[in-house]
């Protein structure tokens, strides 16, 4: 494993982090895994209470990269992580999201063998969680801030770490150049680390974690402190790391960085919009407990759709709202429009088309001309707020249901008004 952490030295069960970094890894090329993605993999219907581990999709055909049950960490009387069940399919980018203090870092540290669990069991890369030395050689990690030698160039930092990682000397130079290219630093490899921007430092640290060609890459808040350009570069990089960019590459360099085989990436973040764009799989925690786990797409799938209706004349707002109430449709009147909630599966469904056509005909029959009927998409932020609120109120590991969706859609509407 290669871990980059903030502290200067840090004794672990698997080794010592040398001057904030350590490299324990197998040389690249071993244990290849086939390509694949679970982005659009089928799963249980929305509303089912859990995502059973036996149903976790894996387009790679391989067992889950991470499958742990009842993961718990207690610090004295405080329970930081409380019986987490986590299953992550091989080959996905998995987002690990939760409010401050939710237990994300503690969980990642337990998975990396840096913190001993108080309870729980399972496997990481098919090896026992309780024997981290068995899987850490196939894991790369960036925990907290990048931590490399300030006075050395990016290239020399990577070279030193590659040697420490046991990569044969004859392969080191080529490996380092490949990594510099992959993280977008080919033109700056000769510059001292301390002269790098924060985004460059983060990308070099990810490059260090990639040196051993890990099958699992764990990134704790890699976008922390980055400006929008740095975030965009990080997004492109992370998307390239599983070897199957989830969207068309943004630059020629992106296209060249695609990895020919699968790798699982677990990334924690507070930036939910980023997580939505990058991650196939999502794990939401609150108070050390699981609030959601499953495909990101599924979290966004809704049973109801909010539609903004705008009449030609403002004096029609009140009659339109009454009309919708008469049709049994929940509606909220705004200054220039009315937002109606249609219980119609999704925007592509026939029910949705029928419901809107009915609203349109009813409005026309009352002499109300609608000049806009536009669906409003819940953001991941809205969904996340709903999950966190439900978890704080004692909710369990439920994917979104009609009730949850409607409840926080209303909250989101209120916030927008
Ligand atoms: N070494 C420790 N000793 C005592 N309590 C700890 C320790 N490490 C973490 N905690 C507590 O465990 C809880 C979870 O912390 P953790 O850092 O895992 O959360 P987090 O989700 O990563 O938060 P953030 O997003 O703010 O980094 C917090 O209440 C924290 O104070």
Automatic annotation (TrEMBL):
Organism annotation: Frankia umida
Give the similarity note: Belongs to the ABC transporter superfamily.
Kindly indicate whether the keyword Membrane belongs to this entry: no
Q: Which domain of life is it from?
A: Bacteria
Q: Does the keyword Transport apply?
A: yes
This chain's protein is named ABC transporter ATP-binding protein
What keywords appear on the UniProt entry?
Answer: ATP-binding, Nucleotide-binding, Transport
For bias kind Low complexity, which ranges apply? 36-50, 396-417
What's a Gene Ontology MF term here?
A: ATP binding
Q: Report which residue ranges the record marks as coiled coil.
A: none
Pfam hit, one = ABC_tran
Which stretches are tagged as biased composition: Basic residues?
Answer: 1-10
């Amino acid at each position: 494993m290669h871990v980059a952490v903030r502290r200067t030295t840090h004794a672990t069960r698997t080794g010592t982090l040398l001057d904030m970094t350590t490299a324990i890894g197998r040389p690249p090329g071993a244990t290849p895994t086939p390509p694949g993605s679970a982005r659009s993999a089928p799963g249980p219907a929305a509303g089912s209470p859990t995502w059973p581990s036996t149903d976790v999709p894996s387009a790679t055909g391989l067992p889950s990269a991470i499958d742990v049950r009842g993961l718990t960490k207690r610090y004295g009387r405080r329970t930081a992580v409380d019986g987490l069940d986590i299953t992550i399919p091989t080959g996905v980018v998995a987002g690990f999201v939760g409010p401050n203090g939710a237990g994300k870092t503690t969980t990642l540290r337990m998975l990396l063998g840096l913190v001993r669990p108080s309870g729980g069991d399972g496997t990481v890369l098919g090896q026992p969680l309780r024997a981290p030395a068995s899987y850490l050689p196939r894991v790369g990690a960036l925990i907290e801030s990048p931590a490399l030698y300030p006075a050395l160039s990016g290239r020399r930092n990577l070279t030193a770490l590659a040697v420490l990682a046991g990569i044969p000397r004859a392969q080191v130079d080529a490996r380092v150049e490949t990594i510099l290219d992959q993280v977008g630093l080919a033109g700056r490899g000769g510059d001292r680390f301390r002269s790098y921007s924060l985004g460059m430092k983060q990308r070099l640290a990810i490059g260090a974690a990639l040196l051993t060609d890990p099958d699992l890459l764990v990134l704790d808040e890699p976008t922390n402190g980055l400006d929008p350009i740095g975030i965009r570069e990080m997004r492109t990089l992370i998307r390239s790391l599983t070897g199957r960019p989830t969207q068309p590459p943004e630059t020629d360099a992106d296209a060249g960085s695609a990895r020919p085989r699968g790798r699982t990436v677990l990334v924690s973040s507070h930036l939910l919009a980023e997580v939505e764009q990058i991650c196939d799989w999502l794990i939401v925690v609150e108070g050390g407990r699981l609030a959601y786990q499953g495909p990101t797409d599924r979290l966004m799938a809704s049973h109801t759709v909010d539609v903004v209706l705008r009449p030609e004349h403002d004096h029609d707002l009140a009659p339109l709202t009454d009309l919708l109430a008469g049709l049994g449709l929940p509606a909220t009147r705004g200054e220039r429009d009315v937002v109606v909630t249609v219980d119609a599966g999704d925007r592509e469904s026939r029910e949705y088309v029928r419901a809107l056509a009915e609203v349109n005909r009813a409005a026309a029959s009352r002499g109300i001309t609608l000049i806009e009927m536009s669906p409003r998409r819940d953001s991941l932020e809205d969904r996340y707020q709903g999950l966190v609120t439900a978890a704080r109120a004692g909710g369990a590991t439920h994917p979104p249901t009609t009730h949850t969706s409607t409840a926080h859609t209303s909250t989101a509407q209120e916030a927008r008004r």
